[in-house]
Write a structure and sequence with these properties.
Layout: H1 2-19, E1 27-29, H2 44-52, E2 62-69, E3 76-78, E4 84-87, E5 95-99, E6 106-111, E7 123-126, E8 132-135, E9 140-143, H3 146-151, E10 156-161, E11 181-183, E12 189-193, H4 205-211, E13 215-219, E14 227-231, E15 239-241, E16 248-252, E17 265-270, E18 275-276, E19 282-284, E20 287-288, E21 306-308, E22 314-319, E23 333-337, E24 350-354, E25 366-370, E26 384-389, E27 395-399, E28 404-410
Parallel strand pairs: 14-18
Antiparallel strand pairs: 1-10, 2-28, 3-4, 4-5, 5-6, 7-8, 8-9, 9-10, 11-12, 12-13, 13-14, 15-16, 16-17, 17-21, 19-20, 22-23, 23-24, 24-25, 26-27, 27-28
Length: 412
């Protein structure tokens, strides 16, 4: 009884914490013209990557090239005008890649808002009005008219979720703390919150479900009306609303230490608020975790629509909605897999593709681009983190190991 009471008290305190300060709207301002901080694009590292790309395997008719050097490149957000690609990282930088008028070549790479002291500014996403949101480890900032103000050195940041209010500060961790975000068809802001354990301890489960840790939060664009939209997620680092249906789809990295080939990683589809996706009772797919194998799972769990290889580290994803690639790719999902660290032999460091029919039913998973992992030496030549579409219909791929962005195109 004492344990149950302490859990209830802990949840009540956490809920009070989560709503406190929600209306605070401080503004960060550069206060002066920003010093130019461009990244060189023609050094020795770039030449070495161009040589490495000759060994990447792609389907017939496709090519790949080095698009830009961007240290620590992870998650992408293309501005509404399609003239700048913003790139989040796990460090302290956000990069802005300016495009040529055709939208298929990088003209320069510069630091965005260097006056802001970012902590893991990984999640970047745009609202239709041109506001750029950046989800950090424990804060969310908004940059109104980011594209125009960046060009004019007049950047202003508004605090949507103050520092320490996305999750309780005592739940911060170096594990599973990279957020991704998106704006839903309803205009609300969505952000993933990975839970910081391999398998969540039993005494943390109720608290985390109340706070949305190990889930996805939804809120108004100003940070108000916070809602736990999804629960039962281990660590999602890629999500997108499917344009054809408005459903939210997302990748999920699954439990380590269960073997080389289990549990599978997941691509999930969410059709309503409040759905539960099985973790920590299930470690991936229908594989039960050891700590919870004798515990009764909640009712009404949602299982993944796609299972992918164990430990490949599936991260960013995007639906192919452009015209450049052949017809069979339209409407399907591209996923960046960063690659395993705890599997023998290693697996991943590639882009996979999942075809979808008109109703959103998936076909078999295909390897689309590979060659960043040497199967003979298990050496990584790149660790892929996200995928995004350029205006011409080609596919961007980020590589945080090499600090690079690649462009995959179709020549026919």
């Amino acid at each position: 009884m004492r344990t149950a009471i302490s859990v209830i008290i802990g949840i009540a305190a956490a809920l009070a914490w989560s709503t406190a300060g929600a209306q605070e709207r401080p503004v960060l301002d550069s206060g002066a013209p920003l010093a130019e901080a461009q990244i060189s694009q023609d050094g020795r590292e770039a030449r070495a990557l161009e040589a490495m790309l000759k060994g990447i395997e792609l389907p017939d008719g496709f090519g790949i090239e080095l698009f830009a050097m961007a240290p620590g490149a992870r998650h992408f957000a293309l501005s509404p005008s399609k003239r700048i690609v913003f790139v989040g990282t796990r460090g302290g930088d956000v990069w802005a890649i300016s495009l040529n008028p055709e939208g298929n070549t990088a003209e320069r790479v510069a630091a965005f808002a260097p006056f802001v002291d970012f902590t893991m500014p990984h999640g970047v996403c745009f609202a239709p009005d041109g506001t750029l949101y950046i989800a950090e480890q424990n804060r969310v900032l908004a940059f109104p008219q980011a594209e125009e103000t960046f060009s004019a050195d007049a950047i202003t940041a508004e605090v949507v979720v103050p520092q320490g209010r996305l999750i309780p500060p005592n739940e911060e961790s170096s594990s599973h703390s990279t957020r991704v975000c998106d704006i839903g068809p309803d205009g609300r802001f969505y952000v993933t919150l990975g839970q910081p354990y391999n398998v969540t301890p039993a005494d943390k489960v109720a608290l985390y479900e109340e706070l949305g840790i190990g889930g996805i939060l939804a809120m108004q664009a100003n940070g108000s009306d916070r809602e736990v939209y999804s629960v039962g997620i281990r660590n999602s680092a890629g999500m997108e609303f499917r344009p054809a249906s408005g459903d939210l789809w997302w990748t999920d990295n699954q439990v380590d230490g269960m073997g080389n080939d289990i549990p599978p990683e997941e691509i999930n589809r969410q059709t309503a608020a409040g759905q539960h996706f099985g973790f920590p009772w299930y470690g991936g797919g229908t594989i039960r975790t050891r700590p919870f194998r004798d515990s009764q799972p909640p009712e009404g769990l949602i299982f993944p629509v796609v299972e992918t290889d164990a430990h490949a580290a599936s991260l960013g994803m995007t639906f192919y909605t452009a015209e450049q690639f052949p017809e069979r790719y339209k409407g399907g999902i591209f996923v960046a897999q960063r690659g395993s660290w705890n599997r023998t032999p290693r697996i991943g460091a590639r882009v996979i593709f999942v075809p979808l029919d008109a109703q959103g039913n998936p076909g078999a998973v295909e390897i689309f681009a590979q060659g960043w992992l040497d199967p003979r030496t298990s050496e990584y030549h790149g660790r892929l983190a996200d995928v995004a579409l350029l205006p011409d219909g080609s596919l961007l791929v980020s590589d945080d190991r090499s600090g690079a962005v690649y462009r995959i195109f179709y020549e026919g």
